[in-house]
Every structure is written in structure tokens, then in C-alpha cells.
């Protein structure tokens, strides 16, 4: 017996999963990581300003409180240090202890007041920050969703747009982190400044001592942070590979194939390889970081010792009083603390800033895909008014256009329409012209990839033609109110979405503009042969159709297709587009569904896309597409008489049934239970 898939997964074969190639944006991340420490520092102010302005837009008062208390706490540090020095000066002075304590009392009171004020400011800062976080999250995330739900469908065809969007969503989460890190950095800097000022006031020479004692540690902390970021940036492909492997090995969707093809050992082997590399890299990083921080600490330690020796010499030489020397020791320790805050926060600001940059970058790029007055050709053109930090202010409201309630869709004229997807050689739809009148049922037929769904998507205004025009009641889509026009069209797509809602809501979302009345939902379900099936679910129409929630249920492919057809029927749209609505239906359900579609004839318009040609026989007009071009058009009998492509496809399919009928004894006909 040949070796099974477990053996074929042996090292050397299929060692790299091809879909995990490096993405274009990762080179950008890598370039930033290799930019060097100074370049990193130079980028900080821009990132901090972007985050603080996002916070300012979310809540001015709280942002001001956080900023004010942060700086205030720093200033209080300076006062605290100066008061400490005064206390020490008085205590180290000559004379009886009681007199010394009495003399130190004002400074002690100041110290107590400063301490209380600092504590009060810290509490106010914490309170304001806690309230600010959800507001900033909401502000930033809502803007992201306003954009992701409004961009034209073409955006999703653009290179790596989905990747870009995913990182932007993560970047949105980094906003609060960046704001907090920026504020903490401000606090650290204010503390450092305060210590510096206090030290200079005591004795200018001590500033030099302070710098010598603290700079080596600061350099080490920054360098270690930079090493960590470089490793992080270099590992993005590896992380995505791990993420993919996690999903493949633990998710429900891949579980059946994983077992049936015996992919367990193959995937575990992939995991071991990636983790082996990851562990090695993390160990190397730990070694480099430890070396750097140890070297920094050693130099810092020696420098601090030198400072203390210097202080001793100054003391012995009578150049500085004992109190100033004692304050200097406290100042050096304070400076160490502030500096470690500053270096840690710089590291955080940088990392969070990189992620936040993904968000602002995405928002700027996505603005080009927002529908605007410029219409479909707006791609690449200016987007709506941009908010601060490259954030589009909001999705612009549609200008007043045609689309009143009385204006039903009477005629759709497609004039020389083409569409070319990005990075595709030929057009998916090529110069198609046709007219669809109210009440007609028309069918688009043709082989896989002939352009049927693309043409339907353009008629449904989901995609903008790259050539030609589509007129609705004589007016091009650009002259209509986009929402009003879409409200007249219902689309049941091939790639329907399983919304994680109840069965009733899954149908009701077909017409969110109206009240979700149960009788209407049930009537739509009945037309799509879904009513009985839904009633048999554990909670009937209230059954949650998502197994990731407790008590949730999943449905079979055909059952889902009935629900999506019901969604399409609910709206009573002027135009219903049904793209392969019956591919998973059993023959009885299919027959009933097409009967419901035929019932629309004369009343409302239907575009039907299906490969089951028996179902298009009754269509008023059949359009045959081939390689994006319209090659035949007419009623069934006419096309059969022409003996062209349609006749060939129809005869081929019918022959399958005929030969089956000739070899299988006919089953007794059962009454249609609908
Ligand atoms: N988003 C896309 N990006 C790039 N090319 C696409 C995209 N969608 C479809 N295409 C290509 O456009 C052509 C037409 O696709 P379309 O889905 O319109 O065909 P279809 O006739 O509906 O096919 P089927 O019968 O298989 O559903 C195909 O060559 C397809 O590969």
C-alpha cells in the first residue's frame, strides 16, 4: 500500500505553506524596524500628537484632566524634592533638635501638602483615564466601522485590502494604549525635568553627576526595547503562520477534512517547525536583551559609585553642604525611577504607535473607496473631508437625488457595460447591452466564469461598471439616491452569509427598514419552502443559528439556502436577483421555489441565474453570456430553434436526465407536499 498522508508530510516535503508568503506591507514594517534608534525616536512626536488628538475628539474634559494632572504630578515632584532638601538643610544645621525640627516645620508642611496634592492628582488622573478609555475606543472603532461598512465592494478586490483592514482593527485597539503611554511618558518626562530643575537649584554640578549616573541605564533600556521591536517585526510571517495553524487545528470548519485526509501529523509537524524557529529566536533575543541591560546596569552602577565618591569629595572639601549631598542621593534615585518610566513608555509609545499607524494609514487609504458625489469613478480620487490624523470625518450623506417611494423600477437599461477586476487580464463582463422591463423574469445563463454574477452585481449597484452605463427608469445610478435605489432591489447571492442571529432575524434582515412582523416573515419563509423546516427547529423561529453560542444550531446547506431565499422574498422588491438560489435544494424544494419565482411574473421583475436550465424555460428572456460577452438572447423556444450555445447546454443537461430515465425505472409520482 502506498504511504499515507502522514508519511508524505515527512520533513522535506511541503515544508512551507505557499499561502503564507510575505505581504507587501510587511516590508514596510521591517524597514521601520531597521531604521535605527534615532529614526525611531524621531517618529515619536507625530504618533503622540495623532493619539492625543483622537483622545481630544473623544472627550476634551477628560483629556485635559489627564494631561493637566500628569504634568501637575511632575511639577509636584520638583516641589517635593525641593521641600525635602529644605527639611534636610534644617535638620543638618547646628543647634538643639527641637529648634531644628521647628525650623524644618514649614518645609515639612509643604512636603505633606505636595504629597497630598500628588495623591489627589493621581486619583483624578486615574478616574479621568478610566472614563476616557471606553470613549476613545468607541470613537476610533466606530469611525473604522463607518468606513468598513461604506467602502465600495471594489475595495475588497484591491491588493491586500482585507489584510490592511484586519491590522487596522488591531490598530484601533492600540489607540488607548498609545494615549496612556503618551500621558505616562509625559508624566515621566515631567518627573525627570522636575528632578533636573531641583538638582540644578541645589548645585549645578550635580546635574552632570545625575546624567553620568542615569544615561547608561537609559541607553540600555531603549536599546532593549528596540531589539524587542525588531524581533517582533521580523516575526510577522511566523506569527501569521502560527495563527493559521492554530485555526486549522482547532476550528470546526477544518475538523472534518483534517480527519478525513489524515492531516494531523502534517499540521503538527508544521507547528513544531515554526515553534522550533520561534523558540530559538526568543532565546537569542533574551540573550541579547540580558547582555544589553547587564552592560547598561554595570556602567550605570560604576557611574553611580563615581557620583557618590564625587559627592563625598565635595563634602570633604566643604564645597557642598551635607543636606545638598543627601538630596542629591535622593535625586539620583528619583531620576532612576523617572528614567525607567520614560524609557519603558518610549518603548510602549513606539510599539502602540506602530499599530495605531496601521489604523490611520488604513483610514486614509480607505477614504478613496468611499462612495461620494464623484460617484463610481471616485476610486483614487479625494475622499470625504478628512478628520485629524488622516481619519475621514464620517461617511458623507447621500445628496438629494431621485428615489421617492412612488418611483418604482419600471425599466433597467444596460448600455455597453463592462467590468474588469483589478489584476485580471480580460474583462469579466465585456460590452453587454440589454433591457429589462417591469414584471419580466429574465435569466442569465452561461458556463462557469462567464460573467453572470458580475453583471447581476452591477445591476444591483453592488459594483460599478468600469465602462458603459446602467439606467434605472432612464436615469443612471449616480442620479439616484443610492440607498433608495438599493431598497428597490433584493439580491440572493451565491455566497450568502450565515448571520449569527435567530432564524426570524435571519429572514427579517432582508428588509430592515420595516417593522419585522412575524406574519410577513412566515409568509416569506413559506414562499422559500422554509416555514416547516424552521418550525421543526428546537425554538422555531427564535432558534439561534450559530453553534458558537450556547443553544445555537447549525443548518444544512439546503436549509440555509431556503432561509436566504426567504430573506430575498421578504422585501417585495421591484427587482429580485436570485443567483444560484437552488444549488443545494432537494428537487421538491427546488420545484416549489421556482414556482414562487414564477408567481412574481407580471408583477415584479426577477433576474435568475442558474445552471439548472430546466428552470429557465419559462423566463421571458434568456441572456447567454460567454467570456463576459452577451452571445445570445431570446425566449427558450427561440434559442432552441437557433441551435446555438444555449441549445447545446440545454440539450447536454436534458440528455443526462433522458439517459437516467431510460436506465432507471420511473418512480411512482407522489403528491407535492410543498
Ligand atoms: N472579486 C473578483 N476578483 C477578480 N476576479 C473575479 C472576481 N469575481 C469574479 N472574478 C472573475 O470574473 C469572471 C466572471 O466571474 P463571475 O462570478 O461573474 O462568473 P459567473 O458566470 O457568475 O460564474 P459561476 O457560474 O461559476 O458562478 C471569472 O473569470 C472570475 O474568475
Automatic annotation (TrEMBL):
The keyword ATP-binding applies. It comes from Plantactinospora siamensis. Pfam families: ABC_tran. Keywords: ATP-binding, Membrane, Nucleotide-binding, Transmembrane, Transmembrane helix. SUPFAM superfamilies: ABC transporter transmembrane region, P-loop containing nucleoside triphosphate hydrolases. InterPro entries: AAA+_ATPase (IPR003593), ABC1_TM_dom (IPR011527), ABC1_TM_sf (IPR036640), ABC_transporter-like_ATP-bd (IPR003439), P-loop_NTPase (IPR027417), Type_1_exporter (IPR039421). The keyword Membrane applies. It is a multi-pass membrane protein. This is ATP-binding cassette domain-containing protein. GO terms for molecular function: ATP binding. PANTHER family: ATP-BINDING CASSETTE SUB-FAMILY B (PTHR24221), HAEMOLYSIN SECRETION ATP-BINDING PROTEIN (PTHR24221:SF646).
Amino acid at each position: 500500500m502506498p504511504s499515507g498522508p502522514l508519511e508524505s508530510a515527512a520533513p522535506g516535503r511541503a515544508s512551507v505553506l505557499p499561502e503564507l508568503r510575505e505581504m507587501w506591507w510587511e516590508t514596510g514594517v521591517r524597514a521601520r524596524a531597521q531604521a535605527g534608534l534615532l529614526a525611531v525616536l524621531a517618529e515619536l512626536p507625530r504618533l503622540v500628537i495623532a493619539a492625543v488628538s483622537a483622545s481630544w475628539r473623544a472627550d476634551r474634559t477628560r483629556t485635559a484632566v489627564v494631561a493637566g494632572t500628569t504634568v501637575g504630578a511632575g511639577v509636584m515632584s520638583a516641589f517635593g524634592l525641593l521641600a525635602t532638601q529644605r527639611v534636610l538643610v534644617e535638620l543638618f544645621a547646628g543647634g538643639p533638635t527641637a529648634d531644628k525640627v521647628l525650623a524644618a516645620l514649614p518645609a515639612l508642611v509643604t512636603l505633606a501638602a505636595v504629597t497630598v496634592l500628588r495623591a489627589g492628582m493621581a486619583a483624578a488622573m486615574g478616574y479621568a483615564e478610566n472614563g476616557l478609555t471606553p470613549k476613545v475606543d468607541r470613537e476610533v472603532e466606530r469611525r473604522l466601522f463607518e468606513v468598513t461598512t461604506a467602502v465600495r465592494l471594489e475595495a475588497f478586490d484591491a491588493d491586500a485590502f482585507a489584510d490592511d483592514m484586519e491590522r487596522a482593527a488591531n490598530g484601533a485597539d492600540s489607540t488607548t494604549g498609545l494615549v496612556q503611554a503618551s500621558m505616562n511618558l509625559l508624566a515621566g518626562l515631567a518627573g525627570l525635568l522636575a528632578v533636573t530643575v531641583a538638582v540644578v537649584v541645589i548645585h549645578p554640578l550635580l546635574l552632570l553627576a545625575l546624567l553620568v549616573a542615569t544615561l547608561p541605564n537609559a541607553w540600555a533600556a531603549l536599546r532593549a526595547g528596540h531589539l524587542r521591536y525588531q524581533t517582533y517585526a521580523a516575526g510577522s510571517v511566523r506569527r501569521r503562520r502560527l495563527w493559521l495553524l492554530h485555526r486549522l487545528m482547532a476550528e470546526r470548519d477544518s475538523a472534518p477534512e483534517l480527519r478525513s485526509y489524515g492531516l494531523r501529523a502534517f499540521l503538527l509537524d508544521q507547528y513544531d517547525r515554526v515553534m522550533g524557529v520561534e523558540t530559538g529566536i526568543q532565546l537569542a533575543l533574551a540573550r541579547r536583551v540580558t547582555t544589553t541591560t547587564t552592560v547598561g546596569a554595570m556602567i550605570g552602577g560604576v557611574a553611580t559609585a563615581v557620583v557618590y565618591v564625587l559627592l563625598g569629595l565635595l563634602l570633604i572639601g566643604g564645597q557642598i553642604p551635607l543636606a545638598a549631598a543627601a538630596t542629591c542621593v535622593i535625586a539620583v534615585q528619583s531620576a532612576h525611577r523617572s528614567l525607567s518610566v520614560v524609557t519603558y513608555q518610549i518603548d510602549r509609545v513606539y510599539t502602540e504607535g506602530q499599530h495605531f499607524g496601521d489604523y490611520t494609514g488604513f483610514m486614509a487609504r480607505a477614504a478613496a473607496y468611499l462612495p461620494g458625489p464623484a460617484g463610481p469613478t471616485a476610486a483614487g480620487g479625494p475622499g470625504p473631508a478628512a478628520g485629524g490624523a488622516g481619519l475621514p470625518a464620517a461617511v458623507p450623506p447621500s445628496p438629494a437625488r431621485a428615489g421617492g417611494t412612488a418611483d418604482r423600477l419600471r425599466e433597467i437599461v444596460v448600455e455597453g457595460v463592462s467590468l474588469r477586476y483589478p489584476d485580471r487580464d480580460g474583462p469579466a463582463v465585456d460590452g453587454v447591452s440589454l433591457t429589462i422591463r417591469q414584471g419580466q423574469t429574465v435569466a442569465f445563463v452561461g458556463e462557469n466564469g462567464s460573467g453572470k454574477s458580475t453583471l447581476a452585481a452591477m445591476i444591483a449597484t453592488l459594483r460599478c461598471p468600469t465602462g458603459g452605463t446602467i439606467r434605472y427608469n432612464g436615469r443612471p445610478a449616480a442620479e439616484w439616491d443610492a440607498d433608495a435605489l438599493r431598497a428597490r432591489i433584493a439580491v440572493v447571492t451565491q455566497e450568502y452569509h450565515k448571520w449569527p442571529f435567530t432564524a426570524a432575524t435571519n429572514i427579517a434582515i432582508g428588509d430592515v427598514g420595516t417593522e419585522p412582523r412575524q406574519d410577513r416573515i412566515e409568509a416569506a419563509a413559506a414562499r422559500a419552502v422554509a416555514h416547516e423546516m424552521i418550525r421543526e427547529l428546537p425554538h422555531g423561529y427564535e432558534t439561534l443559528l450559530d453553534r458558537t453560542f450556547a443553544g445555537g444550531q447549525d443548518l444544512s446547506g439546503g436549509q440555509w439556502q431556503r432561509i436566504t431565499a426567504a430573506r430575498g422574498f421578504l422585501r417585495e422588491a421591484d427587482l429580485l436577483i436570485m443567483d444560484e438560489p437552488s444549488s443545494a435544494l432537494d428537487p421538491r424544494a427546488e420545484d416549489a421555489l421556482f414556482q414562487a419565482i414564477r408567481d412574481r411574473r407580471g408583477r415584479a421583475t426577477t433576474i435568475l441565474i442558474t445552471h439548472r436550465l430546466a428552470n429557465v424555460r419559462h423566463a421571458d428572456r434568456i441572456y447567454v453570456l460567454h467570456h463576459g460577452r452577451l452571445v445570445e438572447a431570446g425566449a427558450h423556444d427561440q434559442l432552441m430553434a437557433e441551435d446555438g450555445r444555449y441549445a447545446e447546454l440545454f440539450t447536454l443537461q436534458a440528455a443526462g436526465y433522458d439517459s437516467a430515465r431510460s436506465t432507471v425505472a420511473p418512480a411512482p409520482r407522489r403528491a407535492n407536499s410543498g
